[in-house]
Amino acid sequence: MSSNATNVGTAVCDFALNGTALDQLYYLFSSLFIFILIVGITLKQAGSIIARNAIHHLFNTMLKIMIGTIVYFMFGYAFSFGKSSGFFIGTSKFFLVEEDRCNFGSYFLHSLIAISACVIAGGATMPRKSIKGTVLSAIFFVGFVYPVCVHWVWGNGWLEKGDGNGAFHDFGGSGVVHVVAGASALSLTILIGPRKLRYKHGVLVEVKPHSVPFVVLGGMLAFLGMIVLNASALPSFIDDSTGQQGRKVTNAMVSTFISGAGGGLSVLAVQFLDDRMVRMANVMNGILAGAVAIAAGADEIEPWSAVLVGCVAGFLQRWGSSTMRRHILDDACDVVATHLLPGLWGLVACALFAENLGVVYAWDANSFGLLGWNLAGAFSIFAWASITTYFIFFVLKAKKLLRVDYDAETAGLDGFLYGQYAYVGLESQPQRTKL
Questions:
Q1: What is the CB neighbour count within 10 angstroms for residue 161?
Q2: Could you tell me the pTM of the whole model?
Q3: Among candidates 109, 112, 104, 110, which has minimal Cα distance to 40?
């Protein structure tokens, strides 16, 4: 049986040690680290909320993984990479029927990236979103909102095609992944309102993470996953004898590592100058913000530029977090400050600092063309994700499908919905209600 399977695979896909085999190994290897990214984000988000809601958060993430996998298989991948219709959305490869089985590694990789973006976006509204809200948000986000932007940028859509003289550049997903997730999170945060225990006397009071180790260790795993995510966007790992594809992968990983360090150090500096205190959750967000910002130009930005990109991202992260609080926008995991703002900055930074292509290096019509395309893409992606998400969830809110019961939220969702708590000692005769 094993021999026959090998013969069939060799006949159909020619998986000898050649470019095709190495491309698929590249996709599959990257996919495993994207799953680590999802695990890290989940752990970080679970540590950021109160302990009585930890199980609810973990169950929500499991739902997103299960639903996102099926939805992306059914039509998300088709909308992303199917035959283009007006360079707006894909119209083939539904249920992977028309996809070459030799390219299933691409589906595996991109389904996990879609799920990771969904998990990131959902962190902003934990633990207020209901089970029904989570299910519907996963379907709409993974099945429609996210794939359209993927098609624009990575699926031969209008931003990737450009105008013949220039095109949008987002190698690792500053816009496709992080602006989409952050913009969706912003719309959801506005619609769903602040947590009851945090909104008091007209201001947002601080809700400390229940587990700083979870936040930091989860953030480290997420950072590891983002290093690989930023290097996983190549359509093919193998090219001619120049080795340019391998150079891009190496540059992407190194620049992400350096930019993340710059982001963390800049947040640390801001905190120290502000109140002489070190808050590990904020430093971790700064590291992730640096990784987000460098993603768009990770293949072309030099290490010295990566330090600058990361440092600016860290400052933006702290400014964004304080701005959200001032406007009574309760982002439980600082998703908007950590992903949306650094993602937008990353698209601009790519056009400025891309080696031999950016404005800083070339200062010519092509470099300013790249800047124009990236600005246009940043605006378009933000507008698409924020407006569609707001419209969809405005309807869900009107139907009272979006938010959990206020009493259950205050007492702790784990006892109300699941009849158990994540930690010994929290039990106080849990009252189970309907999901």
A1: 13
A2: 0.93
A3: 112
Token duo for residue 106: 């691409």
Q: How far apart are CA 403 and CA 65, in angstroms?
A: 20
Residue with tokens 């929500």: 60
pLDDT tens, position by position, 108-148: 999 999 999 999 999 999 889 999 999 999 999 999 999 99
Q: Of 137-146, 304-313, 386-395, 426-435, which range is least confident?
A: 426-435
Q: What is the DSSP letter of 94?
A: G
pLDDT in tens, 268-305: 999 989 888 889 999 999 999 999 999 999 999 999 99
CA distance 160 to 155: 8
Torsion of the alpha carbons at 272, 275, 278 and 279, rounded to the nearest 10: -130
* CA distance to 22, 156, 197, 246, per residue, from 239 (Å): 11, 19, 55, 9
- C-beta of residue 248 within 8 angstroms of C-beta of residue 230: no
**Rounded Cα gap, residues 103 and 15, in angstroms:** 11
How far, rounded to the nearest angstrom, does the alpha carbon of residue 231 sit from its chain's CA centroid? 14
Coil, strand or helix: which one is 89?
Answer: strand
Which value, in Å, is the radius of gyration of the alpha carbons in the chain?
22
Question: Residue 420: CA atoms inside 13 Å, Cβ hemisphere, count?
Answer: 5
- What CA–CA distance (Å, rounded) separates 99 from 95? 9
Residue in the structure block whose two tokens are 């919905």: 417
Q: Where are the alpha helices (DSSP H) in 14-130?
A: 19-48, 54-71, 77-81, 104-122
Return the half-sphere exposure (C-beta side, CA atoms, 13 A cut-off) of residue 154. Answer: 28
Residue 123 and residue 185 in contact, taking contact as beta carbons nearer than 8 Å: yes
Q: Which two tokens stand for residue 396?
A: 């869900």
User: Distance (Å, rounded) from C-alpha 261 to C-alpha 328?
Assistant: 30
- Residue owning tokens 């092509």: 366
Q: Distance from first CA to last CA of the chain, Å, rounded?
A: 45
Concatenated DSSP letters for 343-358?
HHHHHHHHHHHBTTTS
